[in-house]
Amino acid sequence: MNDWIKETQFAASVVFDDFNERLRVEDYRGSVLPLIHSIKTAAQQKKYSKLIVKARNEHVPLFIEKGFRYEGWIQGYFHGSDAHILTYYFQQERRMSGHEWAEDQMVADIQTKSPLSSLSPLPDLYKLRNAQEADAVALVELYRTVFKIYPSPLHELGYMESILKKGALFCLIEHDKQIVSAASAEVNRMYYNAELTDCATLPEHREHGLMKHLLRFLEMELKKQGIFCAYSLARAQSYGMNAAFHQLGYRYSGRLINNCYIFNDLEDMNIWVKDLSAT
User: Fold this and answer.
1) Is residue 267 a contact partner of residue 235, using CB atoms and an 8 Å limit?
2) Residue-wise pLDDT tens digits, 100-156
3) DSSP strand E in 36-132: where?
4) Domain hosting residue 39, numbered range
5) What does the DSSP 8-state code read for residue 230?
6) What is the reported pTM?
7) Which of the 8 DSSP states describes residue 159?
8) Of 95, 111, 134, which marks where a domain is finished?
9) Which of 92, 148, 210, 219 has the greatest CB tally within 10 Å of its CB?
10) Which residues form the N-acetyltransferase domain (predicted)?
11) Do residues 81 and 192 both lie within one domain?
12) 77, 95, 113: which is the final residue of a domain?
């Protein structure tokens, strides 16, 4: 849930992310330099090791001047204008990734392959549908099975029941009445963008490319709502997920270093972006 930091010269919508030891600035208005001072102080008071800002184009030089690092951008995030992802680190070890070279090589290899013009039909016995409130228990079991640690509380039944009750854009694939794959779209109604997230498939079903079907289904649902900026953060060490986004026509646009806890440790996350109005 977003909080607000408000002072006489600015206001900022922020997320105090204790689990991932970071402060995220999702939006802001007003004077940038006092904002920078205040958010650095707020992050240090919480003993966080990372600060992340979605910045407007015209403010990028100010953040760079004050020690922020440019890690990527999301095309069209702010009602068609780009969001630039700038980060500030309070610990050297949080800023350093031991996997960047291998992750760069993996992205380069994926980009040598052509995007898919169409998807093959789902295999027999697999069924894709929207998630319902009654699916909460099975979805929690899926996420607990696939991810030992996850950056949002999808392991908690109460949280899952709550987001499904609120009408979250969640879809899933069943096989023999078991949920074997799922994904969601987190929609920003103010700026009309959506993050495709919560992508999970049981290992024994990954050979069928189920996630690409889920992502394509979510894209169609977003377009119906007039949302054309779609993006995702994919684990930088996951060849399958990064390849899936490339094959669906997403563009690689940066990497967030040691961004969040997944499985047993902090992991780098690759940014993938797609303009749905062009498809």
Assistant:
1) yes
2) 999 999 999 999 999 998 999 999 999 999 999 999 999 999 999 998 888 888 999
3) 50-55, 69-78, 81-89, 126-130
4) 3-95
5) E
6) 0.94
7) H
8) 95
9) 210
10) 126-277
11) no
12) 95
